[in-house]
Structures are given as structure tokens and as C-alpha cells.
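Bench notes, afternoon.
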Amino acid sequence: MSVSPRANFGTSDPIRERGRIDRLGVAALHADGRQRRSLAGRLAGYDDSSKRKKARAITLAALDRVRVFNKRVLNPLMMRMTGRKHWYASVVEHTGRRSGRNYATPIAAQQVPDGFIIPLPYGVGVDWLRNVVAAGHATIRSHGQIYHVVQPQVISAAMAAPQLRPERRRTYDLIGVQRYLSVKFWPN
């Protein structure tokens, strides 16, 4: 009968006592005592979690710069075409939660039988989403039609996936969309 090497660790094992065991139960020290990177760290090229956090912060900062560029440059250009009959983008019209002003924001909404599914590539902290959720309703112009929508709800990618067209789902997965906004048609 073979015994696993992990089963032989006792309280007298100095490596185990120092807490230097990685997720697989393998000592995380080289023979000369230097700390060894974990498997995830070796694959990602990082020595510790602080470098991973820094890389994540840099990624988020880059995404934030893209968001600001889109808000200041591309969105005003897109507003000329969005909501038209043969254009992919739609417009969500909403009211500011503090100012009470009316706003219009270009979005990529996909119509589903009971409303729309809208990807949230910049996360849930964007102004237009917070305004829509606070108000509980909005207006969407899509493919030449105007729709009044209610019951905004942020849902996961797993919940949205069955309702999305396969080509859109692949695109959203590729860019890392993790959350979606689901809205229902206003009952007439």
C-alpha cells in the first residue's frame, strides 16, 4: 500500500510549521531556503499577491481610461447613429438621480421576448446604470422603435447567456463582460 507524501507531514515538520505549504500541499521553499512561487504565480509571472493586485489595478486603470475616452469622444459621435433602424447600437434615456436632468447614453442592447439585456463592460458603477436603477425605469431607442422599460436588475453572465445570440455572447465573453442589466417592457 502506497502512502501519500502529504500524509507524512507531522507537527515536527519545520516547513509545515512555518506555513509555507502551497495549495497542492507541496513545500513552497527551494532547497536553499528561498521561497518558491506558487503554481499560479509561476504561470502569471508574479511572485506574490501584491504584484497581482498591482497588475489588476493597472488593468482597471486602463479600462477606466477607455471608459472616459468613450464617454468624452466616441459617445457623442455614436449618438448621431444610435437607435436608428439599421444600426447595432441603442440609446438609453434616463434621468439623473441627483440633478434631475435628462441624459442619453449609447448602449449595445439586445432585445429578448420580455425586454432587453444590456452588457455592462465597465461594471456596475457607471452613472447611467446607477440612474436607471435609482429611477426604476428608462426609455430605450432601438432599431427605430421607442420602448419604455422598468424593473432594472443586474444579472450575472450565466443568467444572461441563454438569452443572448451566440455571436454576441462570444463577443461579450471575449471582452470579459461579467454583469448585464435586464429590463422588462413597460406593461401597457
